[in-house]
């Protein structure tokens, strides 16, 4: 749905209520169980179940026939981006499960232990994920490929799993933000009518220093890690991961990359492991599907919920309120505009849980703010992309954290504080707004 279509719908604050209900149930349950000392507090309430009351409320609040509201929900849940996400979840689960079953994950970890000092494990995980995401243009494919390895390192060393997985998610969001073929980059530059290279020149001066600072944090976190003797491993078992990493730089579609990874894992297992047969491969792949089902289902539910909120004008109402508040900032005209643009995409992302959609939704309004407050469109595009990636990498109901935590068997809420790159990037972006950095040459 385009922003022009949304603006034609009467803006309604009440349309935002369903997502607030979902968050109150899901996060409220986790906080309550944490306070009373329940083990695995955020696992007590399953997120897809918590989404059902929100979906019912959204349909009931729909201004029109209930059947039409349900159709809107179904269209949102079956959006091509969500179908792609669903397939990535399934194939990522199968790849992680099959490669683990044949010993590929263990072999890759042992290789890493043999060549990477413990103090460099976290910085290297971040750096590898950043390179792959920049080449592939997708954070989801990067997390699917790297998270099992990161989790394996955490099990083989004394590095906490939240740090290892957080490094991968942070690196993935770095690439998603900077990649020339990322959909967020394309959406941001298109909405602000600027060239990809011009947005990159602004973005890189904020993202790269943030990445270097993050690697420094991970280096100090790893200083207390003890060196471990690595075990012998069969180098052939590493082939599936080497292939996936190499194909990530080939511009091949992420679904094709993951499919090749699954097939190679299966072939290597059948060839090298006597105890592995076709039925064990089948069961491992299916177990991977099952492990991702909760995450995939929640994504589809939230996609339908987002479609209803957009259709009812809730998001447009929110964006307009932020636009009105921008004039209240007494920090200089251009800085006020940049703050307003950043807040537009932040709140849109919080409610749609998709950074690309958030940029598209807030793009027209952000362009108006940029014109009114004299903000260079290149800076506007960079800030939109940066803050959308910051929020997407931190929300516990976003696809990136859900995928990573499904692989690592942890709660997304546990991971939020350990995705250091997103926090550091937010700080650097705010500093860039305050100091008007980087300085752009006028044409």
Task: Put the structure in a nutshell.
With 443 residues, the chain is mainly alpha-helical. The protein is built from 21 helices and no strands.
Structural account:
This protein has helices at 3-7, 17-35, 47-61, 66-77, 80-101, 104-115, 121-136, 139-156, 161-178, 183-192, 196-221, 239-247, 254-272, 278-311, 314-326, 333-352, 355-373, 377-392, 399-408, 412-415, 420-435. The chain has 443 residues and is mostly helical. Helix 2 packs antiparallel against helix 3 (47-61), helix 6 packs across helix 8 (139-156) and helix 16 runs parallel beside helix 18. The longest helix is centred in the middle third of the chain and has 34 residues, at 278-311.
Topology of helices and strands:
Elements: H1 3-7, H2 17-35, H3 47-61, H4 66-77, H5 80-101, H6 104-115, H7 121-136, H8 139-156, H9 161-178, H10 183-192, H11 196-221, H12 239-247, H13 254-272, H14 278-311, H15 314-326, H16 333-352, H17 355-373, H18 377-392, H19 399-408, H20 412-415, H21 420-435
Name a few traits of the molecule.
443 residues, mainly alpha, 75% helix, 0% strand, disordered N terminus
Largest sheet: none
Oligomer: single chain
Range of helix content: over 70%
Task: Evaluate the radius of gyration.
Answer: 22 Å
Shape: globular
Summed up, the helix count is: 21
Q: Indicate the proportion of strand residues.
A: under 5%
Q: What are the low-pLDDT stretches, counting only 5+ consecutive residues below 50?
A: 1-10
Judged by helices, strands and strand pairing, the structural class is mainly alpha
What is the first-to-last residue Cα distance? Answer: 35 Å
What count of domains describes the coordinates? 1
Number of strands: 0
Overall pLDDT: 84
H and E order: HHHHHHHHHHHHHHHHHHHHH
